C-alpha cells in the first residue's frame, strides 16, 4: 500500500513537471511566433513605405491600355491628343500606377463631352498663351502595387497645385461604389452624379 502511494505521488510530481514543461514550451513558441509576426509586419511596412518614398511622378508617351480597368476602350492616341497627358508613378524603372488627364474649362459628364471640351480648350490655347484649360480632368486611374493609387493622387495634386494656370482637379469617374469610395477616402468631395458617371473634386488652395 505504501509503495502504491509512493508511486502515485511520484507520478503526480512527474505530471506536474510535464505540465510545467509543456506550458513553458507553449509560451516559448508563442513568444517566437509573436516576435516573427512583428518582424514580418515591420518588413512589410518598410517595403511599402520604402517604395513610396523612392517613387516619382513621370509623364508617359503611352500606357498598356488593356490594364486599364476603367476605360480600356480609349487608345493611346486619344490619351495623348489635344494636350491630354498620361502620368505614372515610377519606381526602380517600373510603372506602378497610372492616371490619365484631359484639360478643359468646364466639367464634363461623359467621355464624349471630355473629348469635345479638351479639344476646344486645346484650340483656344493655340491662339492664346499655349496653356490648355483651367481644369485637370482625371478620367482613369489604376495601380499595380499596393499604395500606388493613393500615391499618384497625392503626386498629381502637388503638381497641379504648383501649376500657374490649372486651378481645379476634378474626376470623370465611372458610376461605381469602388470609384466613389476610392476618391472620398483620398480626400475628394463629390460634386455631381450623372447618368453614367460621377464627378469628384480634390480642392486646391493656392
What does it look like?
- The protein has 206 residues and is α+β, with helices and mostly antiparallel strands.
- It is elongated.
- Strands 1, 2, 3, 4, 5, 6, 7 and 8 form an eight-stranded mixed β-sheet that branches.
- 48% of the residues lie in helices and 24% in strands.
How far apart are the first and last residues' alpha carbons, in Å?
A: 95 Å
The chain-level mean pLDDT equals: 86
Q: What helical percentage do the residues reach?
A: 40-55%
Strand elements, count:
8
Low-confidence stretches: none
Quote the beta fraction.
15-25%
Structural class: alpha+beta
Instruction: Give me the strand/helix succession.
Output: HEHEEHEHEEHEE
| Rounded Rg | 29 Å
Largest sheet: 8 strands, mixed
Helical segment count: 5
Overall body shape: elongated
Quick summary of this structure?
Helix content is 48%, strand content 24%.
Task: Reconstruct the topology from this structure.
Layout: H1 2-54, E1 56-60, H2 76-80, E2 85-91, E3 94-104, H3 111-126, E4 135-143, H4 148-162, E5 168-171, E6 173-174, H5 177-185, E7 189-193, E8 197-202
Amino acid at each position: 500500500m505504501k509503495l502504491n502511494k509512493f508511486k502515485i505521488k511520484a507520478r503526480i510530481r512527474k505530471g506536474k513537471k510535464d505540465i510545467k514543461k509543456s506550458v513553458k514550451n507553449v509560451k516559448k513558441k508563442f513568444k517566437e511566433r509573436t516576435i516573427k509576426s512583428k518582424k514580418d509586419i515591420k518588413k512589410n511596412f518598410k517595403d511599402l513605405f520604402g517604395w513610396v518614398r523612392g517613387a516619382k511622378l513621370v509623364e508617359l508617351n503611352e500606357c498598356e491600355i488593356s490594364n486599364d480597368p476603367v476605360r480600356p476602350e480609349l487608345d493611346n492616341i486619344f490619351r495623348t491628343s489635344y494636350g491630354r497627358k498620361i502620368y505614372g508613378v515610377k519606381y526602380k524603372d517600373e510603372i506602378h500606377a497610372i492616371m490619365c488627364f484631359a484639360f478643359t474649362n468646364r466639367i464634363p459628364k461623359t467621355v464624349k463631352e471630355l473629348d469635345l471640351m479638351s479639344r476646344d480648350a486645346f484650340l483656344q490655347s493655340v491662339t492664346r498663351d499655349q496653356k490648355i484649360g483651367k481644369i485637370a480632368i482625371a478620367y482613369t486611374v489604376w495601380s499595380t502595387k499596393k499604395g500606388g493609387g493613393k500615391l499618384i493622387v497625392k503626386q498629381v495634386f502637388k503638381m497641379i497645385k504648383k501649376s500657374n494656370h490649372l486651378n481645379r482637379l476634378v474626376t470623370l469617374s465611372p458610376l461605381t461604389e469602388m470609384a466613389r469610395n476610392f476618391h472620398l477616402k483620398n480626400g475628394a468631395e463629390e460634386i455631381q452624379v450623372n447618368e453614367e458617371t460621377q464627378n469628384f473634386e480634390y480642392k486646391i488652395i493656392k
